[in-house]
Design a protein that fits this description.
Elements (H helix, E strand, L loop, with lengths): L10 H5 L6 E2 L12 H5 L3 H6 L11 E4 L2 E4 L2 E2 L4 E2 L7 H5 L2 E6 L2 E7 L3 H6 L3 H15 L1 H9 L14 E6 L3
Antiparallel strand pairs: 1-3, 2-3, 4-5, 6-7, 7-8
The structure holds iron/sulfur cluster.
Iron/sulfur cluster binds next to loops.
Length: about 170
């Protein structure tokens, strides 16, 4: 497993928000995608995922009162049941692996309220610098390159996404 990634959004801010882990559609593009390597691993994540991942490696959703949420999300207490071992994509959010001119890139999802609040302050700039260093580590970059489907396009949401940097030149 690759090194853990420090979170940009404090846990308390996440817990008080009702955006993440919930989706408008059962097959939303925002459902967590699990890298094949993560799904194939022998660890607790793979075991937890065994019945809750679909044929395209997206975590299945569950419906409640006409809304959908990640199969691992517990809406009553806003808790992720696999938080400590959640997929890479969940750990990276509100940053996203995207494609810029066909190269893997890192972007930020501007819909996150914490990003909206901090996008122009020093904490955001410092985190982006740390993120660049993180992805420069050979094993992290290799993990992304071995699992190319992690870098996605969001054609319906371009106005919510801001490109930050590409991972390879
Ligand atoms: S795995 Fe956990 S963090 Fe990721 S979307 Fe599901 S509930 Fe949220």
């Amino acid at each position: 497993m690759i090194e853990s990634l420090p979170q940009f959004v404090p846990q308390q801010a996440c817990l008080s928000c009702d955006g993440c882990c919930r989706f408008k559609e059962a097959d939303s593009c925002w459902r967590p995608y699990v890298a094949p390597e993560e799904a194939r691993s022998k660890g607790r994540l793979a075991e937890a995922l065994a019945k809750d991942i679909d044929e395209n490696n997206y975590i299945k959703t569950a419906e409640e009162k006409g809304c959908f949420h990640c199969a691992f999300f517990h809406p009553a207490d806003h808790v992720c049941h696999v938080y400590a071992i959640r997929p890479f994509e969940c750990r990276l959010y509100p940053f996203l692996l995207t494609k810029e001119k066909n190269l893997p890139a890192v972007s930020v999802h501007l819909s996150c309220p914490y990003v909206q609040e901090h996008e122009h302050d020093g904490s955001f700039k410092r985190y982006v610098r740390a993120l660049k260093e993180y992805f420069r580590q050979g094993n992290v970059l290799k993990f992304v390159l071995r699992n190319p489907s992690l870098a996605k396009r969001y054609p319906q949401h371009e106005n919510e996404i801001k490109h930050l940097f590409t991972l390879v030149q």
